[in-house]
């Protein structure tokens, strides 16, 4: 069984930031990533643009040059790719960590391909893999998707976009601009307050002029081959429909953390408990980094404000890491 000093679970921006710290210190480490490098960003909408300016997405002060102040998905993929390759970071791709167990002073990491031993483990597994389900009949029809990639398939089609957050608003506007017939079905009473301040007025105005239809205080009840039904405070409505984009958010795999024995807050936000100075959990030697730290509060941590986790962990490990 290969023996590491540090295993990092997740090859997103924050897992990469952790690997940079390990590489600089000459530690024997690897990232284990279940998909492609930066798998979450790879699966973002093709035309997405970050709300952060490029220097706020930089890791370890490695310059991120972008054509615009706010980079797009392609530029981010290029940047993180170059950070990994030019720093020779160690990473195993397309390998899923299934379990982490502490056995005396070491962790046994079981993947779908292998087993490894490690002195320390950093979990930076993000939140983008598990969509929040609507749990309504018809949700498993092929016309329903929880991810939006690009507008082209939806032109000249009747598309219901469910949700009113950044992802839903971006998708609705892009599909409408390319020629789709868009209806938004929104559980709340308005377009979300956290929608980017330069995008929200565009959405509100498209609804006001009737270009994009919107139903508020509305909950989907059934999806059928050719229609979608929802109830508002006043009535039950059924409209014709070809495609449904259920962009109601994503949730982290907290069961994975619970199975390892990580403690959680007692409120309904299900926040994992960790030391905010060191990022160490209740399990000695096991650390959390990145968006996973927020539990169900998936908007709390993002690249900008969580890249610092890598340094906090590495500085804590500096004094205690045993030579592998
Ligand atoms: C549309 C959109 C726009 C955004 N714009 C911005 C922005 O402008 N600025 C900003 O700071 N943030 C932005 N964010 C948020 C940001 O992308 C995330 O906060 C960031 O990706 C978090 O990085 P991470 O490394 O913690 O997690 P992730 O990037 O999600 O990486 C986690 C990785 O872990 C892997 N993984 C999960 N489970 C396992 C397992 N069991 N075994 C192996 N690998 C596993 C996943 O495949 C994934 O690659 C945006 C998010 C979205 C959806």
From TrEMBL:
InterPro entries: Bdr, FAD/NAD-bd_sf, Ferredoxin-NADP_redctase_2. Keywords: Flavoprotein, Oxidoreductase. Pfam families: Pyr_redox_3. One of its GO terms (molecular function) is oxidoreductase activity. It comes from the Bacteria. This is YpdA family putative bacillithiol disulfide reductase. The gene is ypdA.
